[in-house]
Design a protein that fits this description.
heterodimer, A: alpha+beta, Glutaredoxin, 2 domains, four-stranded mixed sheet, 44% helix, disordered C terminus, B: alpha/beta, Rossmann fold, Ubiquitin-like (UB roll), de novo design (two linked rop proteins), five-stranded mixed sheet, 41% helix
Chain lengths: 202, 462
């Protein structure tokens, strides 16, 4: 018994091998003064981890729980409620959400989702093997005035038809060159900020 | 034509250059109301003003805002919290996004004035994840306002302090329910709470809390700026025969989407008819097609038929044609080419996906309704299914008294209104796609009579 415990203890990674690096920990600590309880920091912290790593692996859940003085189960409980956080592997460098709710669906949103999946060779919820794209369906993105619409990273596109979607995909293919797997940083598409800011007024 | 000359107030800045910056907002008279309030009015004065205005919450339920504020305990040592509901996730609804993207300071000034009125020391803006531009614009607005002394410690020398933080959601519709939102800020799964106690008594972190929608708070800013007379000169007065009706005063943002020529966000007085909105603002049904159905205020409110679109869009109008209410005031227009079976399937799929799973009638009801509609769409529908769907629709929700929050009512109303108002279309669909089996009304008949031939035996083979 004591041997296994000792082995476990020595298995615990040293600070350098932790999933949550020092910078990320400091970023999470900045949320502390905003809330009267540590537990309220869970959601902002999960967002920070997700932005940094592209997903929230179980090791990160345990480390976050330790930081906040919670049990891992408490953090996992919250995390699993929201469909947003991935745990098995990072999402693609461009996370594309295609709206399938009523306004978009009535204007052809589900056909767009289908077409996008066919072009990328994946099903909704999956990531391309090269780690570039993750495609998901979304429930109402609040872009009904631009239906059918999608959200790619922070970029909004709509109203779209199949040809426009094809052009978008071609552009993404060029701007997001394939990279070897094992990247750590989950980035939104590189040109998001400028285009989203410039293209928000329709 | 008089309606077209309506001068927008909530959307007055939208479309102006740099409308999201503090400079542009102040140039248009922004934060003048806040200065005046802090100089001349006590928090009680502001509560009394908003109460007298009969402003009703714009998020869906239409609860009188001043009344909600007056439920806060008077001598509470604090802290008191203000939660801003910016989790706009109701299908068809996008007006808060337009406000936050184009005029974040208007929203923020409304938040600051309302926090002053409710004596809140911290305000959390619960912003849905899917609005990244709103996040940037609101955060910039908060930073700019803090620099100018509109936020932070000792605001404008008044001795009163306020912090405003943005709390990002993670894609869950139920977080728009006020106690679900509170649970989510607390870092838990967003399971709505059983009420009472109401948030005004015991809310966020077990302290008195007010939860208000973005548009409601923007209205507060204008009531303070322009006064009671202005606000009550717009909209619909209380029904004389109903002493409990607070009326529908003020401007409202209407979103129009779906099969119209000009989808978008429009500001009009409450009480305008759905027809005027669709024809004057939305530019009519696309490609000159015939109108089939209109969702009056976000998917939850159910549907109106083309014959019902003269319904006034005020807080009681849609109720009169069997809808859940005004909801968010965001219309979804469906033309003659769209199948109501598809509509209902889409609706049920949404609510099944978003049901938090806490209450059995909602968790099971929403999922079974999707299962039945999938079966109907797969050509195996039976007329009996429509009765089963209606049974679900009539029994889940707060109104029948079987669930904790109103999500199930939102799921129920599209079922009830779509099937009752478009029954012929559902029956035709079932008969057309399942010509042999649509009459089978006893799907479990083989439990009776040991499987011997009988009335239901034909059904067994399906």
């Amino acid at each position: 018994m004591s041997e296994t415990t000792a082995a476990k203890r020595s298995d615990r990674p040293p600070a350098a091998e932790r999933v949550l690096g020092d910078a990320l920990r400091r970023r999470i600590e900045q949320f502390y003064p905003r809330y009267p309880t540590r537990r309220a920091v869970v959601l902002p912290a999960l967002h920070a981890i997700n932005e940094e790593l592209g997903y929230v692996p179980l090791a990160a859940v345990a480390e976050l729980a330790e930081m906040l003085g919670l049990t891992p189960a408490q953090v996992q409980d919250t995390l699993s409620f929201y469909g947003f956080f991935r745990q098995d592997r990072p999402v693609g460098r461009l996370r594309i959400m295609v709206c399938r709710s009523i306004s978009c669906s009535a204007c052809g949103g589900e056909e767009l989702l289908d077409h996008l999946c066919r072009r990328l060779g994946i099903r909704p919820g999956e990531t391309t093997p090269d780690g570039r794209f993750t495609v998901e369906f979304a429930e109402c993105l609040g872009l009904c005035d631009r239906a059918p619409a999608l959200l790619a990273g922070e970029e909004v596109h709509g109203p779209l038809n199949r040809e426009m979607l094809d052009q978008l995909i071609d552009r993404w293919m060029q701007t997001l060159p394939a990279e070897p797997a094992g990247r750590t940083k989950a980035a939104v598409s590189p040109d998001t900020k400028s285009t989203a800011a410039a293209g928000d007024t329709k | 034509m008089a309606k077209q000359s309506y001068q927008p107030v909530l959307l007055a800045n939208v479309g102006k250059p740099e409308s999201h910056t503090l400079r542009a907002y102040e140039a248009g008279g922004g934060y003048r109301g806040l200065r005046q309030v802090l100089r001349e009015k006590s928090p009680q004065d502001v509560v009394a003003l908003v109460k007298a205005s009969l402003l009703r919450g714009r998020g869906g339920a239409g609860f009188p805002t001043g009344l909600k504020w007056s439920f806060l305990p008077e001598d509470h040592p604090g802290p008191i919290y203000l939660c801003v509901n910016a989790d706009e996730s109701e299908p068809g609804t996008f007006v808060n996004r337009v406000q936050m993207e184009h005029d974040p300071h208007q929203v923020l000034e409304g938040i600051i004035i309302s926090a002053y009125a409710t004596r809140a020391s911290t305000a959390y803006i619960y912003l849905r994840y899917e609005y990244p531009l709103c996040l940037r614009r609101m955060q910039t607005a908060i930073d700019e306002a803090r620099e100018k002394g509109y936020l932070g410690k000792n605001i404008l020398g008044s001795g009163w302090s306020l912090e405003v933080y943005i709390h990002r959601g993670a894609g869950a519709y139920v977080c728009g329910e006020e106690t679900g939102l509170i649970e989510s800020i607390e870092g838990k799964r967003a399971w709505p709470r059983i009420k009472p106690p109401f948030p005004a008594v015991e809310g966020l972190f077990r302290k008195p809390t007010v939860v208000n929608n973005v548009e409601t708070l923007a209205c507060v800013k204008h009531i303070v700026d322009r006064g009671l007379e202005w606000f009550k000169s717009i909209g619909v007065p209380p029904a004389p025969d109903n002493p409990r009706d607070p009326g529908s005063y003020g401007p409202k943002l209407f979103g129009i989407s779906g099969h119209v020529n000009r989808p978008g966000c429009y500001e009009r007085p409450l009480g305008i008819s759905a027809r005027e909105l669709i024809e004057q603002c939305g530019g009519g049904v696309r490609q000159g097609r015939k109108l089939k159905a209109v969702v009056p205020g976000g998917l939850s409110t159910g549907v109106m038929t083309a014959d019902e679109i003269d319904t006034p869009m005020d807080f009681s109008g849609p109720l009169k044609v069997g809808c859940l209410g005004l909801g968010t005031g965001c219309l979804i227009v469906l033309d003659e080419t769209y199948s109501m079976v598809d509509f209902l399937y889409n609706s049920c799929r949404f609510f099944a996906h978003e049901s938090c799973g806490q209450c059995t009638p909602c968790r099971e009801g929403t999922h079974w309704s999707v299962a039945m509609l999938e079966r109907i769409r797969a050509g195996r529908g039976r007329l009996k299914d429509l009765e089963l769907l209606l049974e679900i629709g009539d029994t889940i929700g707060i109104i029948p008294g079987t669930t904790i929050c109103g999500l199930a009512d939102g799921a129920a109303w599209p079922i009830k209104t779509a099937i009752r108002k478009f029954r012929g279309e559902f029956e035709d669909y079932i008969k057309r796609t399942n010509p042999g089996g649509y009459q089978t009304v006893h799907p479990v008949a083989w439990f009776e009579g040991n499987g011997s031939a009988g009335a239901g035996s034909a059904a067994v083979k399906h």
